[in-house]
Amino acid sequence: MNRTTLSLIACTVALAAVTGFAAFDPPAASGSGAAGSATERPVERTGLLCPAPSFSDIADTAYTSFTPVTQGAESGGRAALEAADEQSADGKGAKSADKKAEPVLTPKPPGTPALGDTSGSDAPALIGTADGKYAPGWTVQETTKIAAGTGRGLQGVTCTPADTDFWFPGASTAEGRTDYVHLTNPDDAAAVVDIKLYGKGGTLKSAVADGITVPPHSSEPVLLSTLTDDPQTDLTVHVGVRSGRVGATVQAQDDAGGGDWLPAAADPAGSLVLPGIPKDATDVRLVAFARGDDDADLKVRLASPSGSITPAGNETVHVKAGMTTAVDLGPVTRGEPGSLILTPTDDAVPVVAALRVVRGKGARQETAYIPATAPVGRRATAADNTAKGSTLSLTAPTGTATVKVTASAGSEGGSPATKTYTIKSGTSQDISAPSGGKGTYALTVEPVSGGPVYAARTLTSTDGASGFTIQTLPNDRGLVAVPRAEQDLSVLQR
Q1: pLDDT tens digits along 215-259
Q2: Cβ proximity of 356 and 332 under 8 Å
Q3: Residue 7 phi, psi dihedral angles, 5° rounding
Q4: Using an 8 Å Cβ cutoff, are 158 and 139 in contact?
Q5: pLDDT grade, residue 40 (50/70/90)?
């Protein structure tokens, strides 16, 4: 009996360290928490999924792989990105069943970014695995330039692990929009997926959105407009996995306003943070959905460099239960960078939300999306940064925070560089990141003390073309909290 109990504890610790999927909240940045209750270890295995980048023949896609240096990580290991069996956009089978694509890049050891690229409409989705020293915090960025046509501009997405539940407020089936949800199955068994659509009047009827099968090691794009006969300007998409697990991301493309990837929003919660609205945003649209049976009333605040303000005319927003609500905030930042903070006016009701952000006007108008995101936690990582094209935004909504930012060595050499910043409570700051490397580099963000920090990174085209993309920076899953074995085992021996 005693040996069995101890073996189960040891097995739990080992499994958490290997997979990184233990269901424990990471300790606060200050290290506070129950003494002796848990310890942190580097994960030993990580999986990432990158969606097929584009259906455009003139798309050029760059990939950047990076693993931050993590104390205590193993010395060996490997990482690889392999092509999924890509399904055609019309769902009529694989695009290249007999052709095995070459890897787009070979990941490099921790501390150094690795680059790769591809082009055209046949670029597949990628299934990535890393173990040993490559696993803790492994981050892959997919960035695509499209010179003309639907979705023109810059589209970027951070490749994500597989999961079973995803929310996407901000999608659309309106005229002029072409939105796909990309489903990628990394496992040896087929996954079965249900897709639910919620418009301004509630659930949309669909005869084909339930029981979608995604074959093993395969990726399948699903055009949202084929799931309903009811066009909706603002749509919330829920992807639930009935069997197995998948990666899911929405590609939102506009004939007139360019396009970008819409990543899954943070889990439904009463309070939400949407960081990194550019200072020159010409239009910002908030899309929110209240899960459950109760309406949500939310207080709207904009965290600016000087403090939190309430947008004139949009002090609160009422979100009806089971319905998608959209609010036009206009040029809400008014020349200063900002982050949107949503809090309940009374009782907290679980909500998901995202922002549609527009920069430029007319033919140079481009669009990006900011989903509500989780805090940085211990550490977050953003790959594919350049000296002139990257902006890092940090927000401390509830308490002043001290944050350490490290720029890695570059793809063309150089050394890492680190700076420490203080983000005052209720403010949002665009910071000038340290630079010690040449070429493309990665950024790691590590809160040192104070309240929770939320982060986002904006990439802007530097070749004269218009285009931008925004990625939020939640925890990079490099460390996992596991139960700490107690010295006194007398309780187990009774």
Answers
A1: 999 999 999 999 999 999 999 999 999 999 999 999 999 998 899
A2: no
A3: -65, -40
A4: yes
A5: confident
What's the gap between Cα 303 and its chain centre?
21
Residue 113 is which amino acid? P
The Cα-based distances of 73 to 28, 203, 251 in angstroms read 21, 47, 35
Residue identified by tokens 């589209």 is 155
Find the mean pLDDT for residues 299-322: 96
Instruction: Provide the whole-model pTM.
Output: 0.89
Region of 22 (left: φ > 0; alpha: ψ -120 to 50; beta: rest) is beta
Report the alpha-carbon distance of residue 339 to residue 341 in Å, rounded. 7
| pLDDT tens readout for residues 340-352 | 999 999 999 999 9
Cβ-Cβ contacts under 8 Å for 141 (sequence gap 6 or more):
63, 64, 156, 157, 158, 159, 382, 383, 384, 471
The widest CA-to-CA distance across the chain, in whole angstroms, is 75
3-state DSSP of the chain:
CHHHHHHHHHHHHHHHHHHCCCCCCCCCCCCCCCCCCEEEEECCEEEEEECCCCCCCCEEEEEEEECCCCCCCCCCCCEEEEECEEECCCCCCECCCCCCCCCCCCCCCCCCCEEEEEECCCCCCEEEEEEHHHCCCCEEEEEEEECCCCCCEEEEEECECCECEEEEEEECCCCCEEEEEEEEECCCCCEEEEEEEEECCEECCCCCCCCEEECCCEEEEEEHHHCCCCCCCCEEEEEEEEECCEEEEEEEEECCCEEEEECCCCCCECCEEEEEECCCEEEEEEEEEECCCCCEEEEEEEEECCEEECCCCCCEEEECECCEEEEEEECCCCCCCEEEEEEECCCCCCEEEEEEEEECCHHHCEEEEEECCCCCCCCEEEEEECCCCEEEEEEECCCCEEEEEEECCECCEECCEEEEEEECCCEEEEECCCCCECCCEEEEEEEEEECCCEEEEEEECCCCCCCEEEEECCCCCCEEEEECCCCCCHHHHC
Residues above pLDDT 90, as percent of the chain: 76
Using one digit for the tens of pLDDT, what is the confidence trace for 195-220? 999 999 999 998 777 899 999 999 99
Region label for 322, one of left (φ > 0), alpha (ψ between -120 and 50) or beta (otherwise) = left
Q: Map tokens 């969606």 to a residue.
A: 51
Beta-carbon contacts of residue 8 (< 8 Å; ≥ 6 apart): none
